[in-house]
């Protein structure tokens, strides 16, 4: 059975095409699509197969139909807008657009650039700007039955480019000079002062400048045009003509040829208001008037539309022969119509990809399937830019292809952005693989050591060595997690610096001390060179030590045994420069621009398995910038060493004077004989903490739920309670609040033991009633410090 016509012209179109096919048309003024007029079918087929936002409003009630690309313009008005009245959809901007609609329904096409509209499409009033054209749509009788629009939202462009107002204004004036016949006549004798090429093409190539209309175009005398010019000059009122026939002798010796024109005679006035000339502007619409089918009328409108869109656009015959390009094409390629005729478009395509493109285009022409491809095209300047090209077939009532319409959209910037995202994603994947590797490394010796401790015949020396292995590997894992947390805090802006005036000697001494073991192990030579007096800086001591520790540690890691590392300090005006230079493996030119990016590391080969997550230098850059400084790196290439330079502002007031190294040691007080209660649902974590506390001579009780912990609290009256936050029946915060609400003879000291270590986590714990906040894995020194602080159960001041 032959497919109904409605199904043929409504085929494709994506979401809106499907919506149009399944819509209930029984209550619509348009009726069933099978009964739609040919002109409406043609326009609907055009917009459904276009990637450019388009709509058509048909009939007296202007019933609204649109394509997939227009859905984004509608916002949350879609899909309810489909098939409704134009006014019901855009009532909030009706006052702005109704005059334009009236012009279109009166038969006048119009184009508007960056028109401001206050729209309500996302749940709120939004100031937008649009560039669009409204064109009348004629039915088979030649009457205006509807209008269609092609539009693009230019809101972002307007907001971003307002500062280029003068340039935009110049471009707008040029852009608004739509193609068509134009002439300027000097009065009172209607002398040609200026004509354009389109005008000369209309009347035939002849000499017009400086001649009167009567002499230059004698054949128009008696056709009413000279009389109209006389009237406009005499009254000062413009004249608008629509579809006016004119007989012209376009070539010498030819008979008169009838053409049809739309034109305006617009009086030109001087500063006194006197008419001094007449501006003639119009279009040769002969082909449109003579068009015998709605398809040819649609093609003419499509050409006018395609010259207003920002994409390169073109049309081809059913055999693939391209016969028309829009102005954007010629502006971009710098070619002429003669050069591009037929298959001339091949000249602007990348020769390496041309065979593949030709094969794909010929396949689409042969099968009728839409053509889609992304490839480079050469501009007038010789530059190749990447374009996304799509061409869709236009079919007649029988479903036969009569035309192809294609667009080329510049996607160069999108392609670059996608490549950057792919590169970032690769770095992320590499980082995750590296993280898994780095975490598995310490887990292996920890697991082996745990198995060894299960053996009953281990001597004390082996137990000591096994415990030391576990301690070192846990410390390594803790440092990895700390690096991750530091980067997270910095990138989210959660780091706040505690600045003080401090000398660089102290900072560098502490940094070198932290890296000393690695340098000593690799038997490297480290030198400190200071030009002049050592300056002071306003800095967060801990964070600045972290900066130089990371840089010196990085130098030591990537410098071979017996290598040299030099730390040089000099003051330059109001800034101090610290250079860390090594003679290590260096940095390749490809890696150099990315060394401060997150997750970036040098190549991991067997001789470069240095460990780490590629976070250190990214953290260095962020912390230095927080101090108002900069960090840079240079390298002569692979195997030729590298040099990192940190620049920091010098503190006001000169040198630090006599610097003093801070002592981190404090006299520890012993604490023994305390009653302690550990509440943690992780049995292993609770038992190991209890064992550690018992070795210090304390009585330790263990429970694995909040309820049992509260019951044991009344029985044992512990001096300190170590509470996990993530308990199954009641979280640690609620348990702390419950304890603080109890009337006890003596409140215990509450210590939160948790894997959450952000500043806000500590604040939440203290607000819930905890006295201390420890982050897992808990350091032995931290626990001993608490025990010393609370040596006397009655010492309430320590809380």
Automatic annotation (TrEMBL):
Protein name from the UniProt record: histidine kinase
Membrane-topology descriptor: Multi-pass membrane protein
GO MF annotation terms: histidine phosphotransfer kinase activity; phosphorelay sensor kinase activity
Species of the source: Noviherbaspirillum humi
4-aspartylphosphate: modified positions: 724
Presence of the UniProt keyword Phosphoprotein in the record: yes
One cellular-component annotation, GO: plasma membrane
Domain PAC: start-end pairs: 242-297, 371-423
């Amino acid at each position: 059975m032959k497919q109904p016509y409605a199904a043929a012209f409504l085929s494709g179109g994506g979401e809106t095409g499907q919506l149009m096919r399944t819509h209930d048309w029984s209550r619509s003024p348009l009726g069933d699509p099978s009964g739609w007029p040919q002109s409406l079918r043609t326009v609907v087929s055009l917009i459904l197969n276009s990637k450019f936002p388009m709509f058509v409003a048909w009939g007296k009630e202007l019933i609204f139909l649109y394509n997939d690309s227009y859905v984004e313009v509608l916002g949350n008005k879609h899909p309810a807008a489909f098939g409704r009245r134009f006014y019901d959809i855009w009532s909030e901007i009706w006052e702005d657009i109704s005059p334009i609609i009236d012009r279109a329904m009166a038969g006048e096409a119009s184009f508007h650039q960056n028109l401001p509209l206050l729209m309500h499409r996302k749940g709120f009033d939004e100031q937008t700007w649009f560039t669009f054209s409204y064109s009348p749509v004629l039915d088979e009788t030649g009457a205006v039955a509807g209008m269609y629009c092609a539009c693009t939202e230019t809101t972002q462009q307007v907001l971003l480019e307002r500062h280029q107002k003068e340039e935009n204004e110049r471009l707008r004036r040029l852009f608004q000079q739509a193609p068509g016949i134009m002439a300027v006549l000097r009065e009172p004798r209607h002398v040609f002062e200026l004509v354009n090429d389109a005008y000369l093409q209309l009347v035939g190539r002849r000499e017009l400048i400086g001649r009167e209309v009567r002499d230059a175009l004698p054949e128009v005398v008696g056709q009413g045009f000279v009389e109209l010019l006389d009237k406009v000059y005499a009254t000062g009122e413009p004249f608008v003509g629509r579809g006016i026939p004119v007989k012209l002798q376009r070539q010498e010796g030819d008979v008169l040829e009838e053409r049809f024109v739309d034109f305006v005679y617009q009086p030109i006035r001087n500063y006194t208001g006197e008419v001094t000339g007449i501006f003639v502007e119009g279009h040769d619409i002969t082909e449109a008037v003579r068009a015998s089918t709605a398809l040819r009328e649609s093609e003419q409108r499509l050409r006018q539309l395609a010259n207003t869109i920002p994409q390169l656009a073109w049309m081809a015959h059913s055999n693939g022969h391209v016969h028309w390009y829009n102005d954007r094409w010629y502006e971009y390629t710098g070619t002429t119509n003669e050069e591009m005729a037929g298959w001339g478009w091949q000249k602007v395509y990348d020769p390496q990809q041309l065979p593949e493109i030709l094969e794909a285009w010929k396949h689409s022409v042969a099968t009728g399937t839409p053509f889609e491809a992304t490839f480079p095209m050469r501009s007038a300047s010789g530059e190749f830019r990447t374009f996304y090209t799509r061409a869709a077939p236009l079919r007649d009532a029988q479903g036969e292809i009569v035309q192809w319409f294609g667009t080329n959209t510049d996607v160069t910037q999108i392609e670059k952005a996608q490549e950057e995202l792919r590169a970032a994603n690769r770095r992320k994947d590499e980082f995750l693989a590296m993280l898994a590797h780095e975490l598995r490394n310490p887990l292996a010796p920890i697991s082996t050591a745990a198995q060894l401790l299960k053996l009953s015949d281990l001597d004390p020396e082996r137990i000591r060595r096994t415990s030391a292995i576990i301690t070192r590997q846990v410390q390594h894992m803790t440092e990895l997690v700390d690096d991750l947390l530091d980067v997270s805090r910095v990138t989210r802006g959660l780091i706040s610096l505690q600045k003080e005036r401090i000398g660089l000697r102290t900072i560098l001494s502490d940094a070198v001390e932290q890296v000393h073991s690695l340098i000593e192990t690799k038997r490297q030579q480290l030198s400190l060179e200071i030009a002049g007096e050592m300056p002071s800086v306003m800095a967060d001591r801990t964070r600045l030590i972290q900066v130089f520790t990371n840089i010196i540690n990085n130098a030591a890691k990537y410098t071979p045994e017996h290598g040299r590392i030099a730390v040089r300090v000099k003051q330059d005006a109001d800034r101090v420069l610290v250079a860390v230079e090594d003679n290590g493996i260096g940095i390749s030119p490809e890696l150099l621009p990315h060394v401060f990016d997150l997750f970036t590391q040098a190549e991991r080969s067997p001789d470069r398995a240095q460990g780490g997550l590629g976070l250190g230098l990214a953290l260095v850059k962020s912390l230095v910038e927080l101090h108002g400084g900069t960090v840079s790196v240079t390298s002569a290439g692979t195997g030729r060493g590298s040099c990192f330079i940190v620049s920091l502002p010098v503190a006001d007031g000169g040198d630090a004077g006599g610097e003093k190294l801070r002592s981190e040691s404090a006299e520890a007080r012993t604490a023994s004989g305390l009653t302690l209660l550990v509440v943690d649902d992780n049995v292993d974590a609770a038992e190991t903490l209890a064992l550690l506390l018992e070795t210090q001579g304390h009585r330790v009780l263990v429970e694995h739920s909040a309820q049992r912990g509260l019951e044991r609290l009344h029985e044992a009256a512990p001096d300190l309670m170590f509470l996990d936050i993530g308990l199954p029946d009641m979280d640690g915060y609620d348990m702390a609040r419950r304890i603080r609400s109890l009337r006890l003879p003596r409140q215990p000291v509450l210590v939160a033991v948790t894997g959450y270590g952000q500043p806000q986590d500590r604040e939440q714990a203290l607000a819930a009633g905890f006295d201390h906040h420890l982050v897992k894995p808990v350091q032995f020194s931290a626990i001993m410090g608490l025990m010393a602080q609370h040596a006397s159960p009655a010492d309430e001041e320590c809380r």
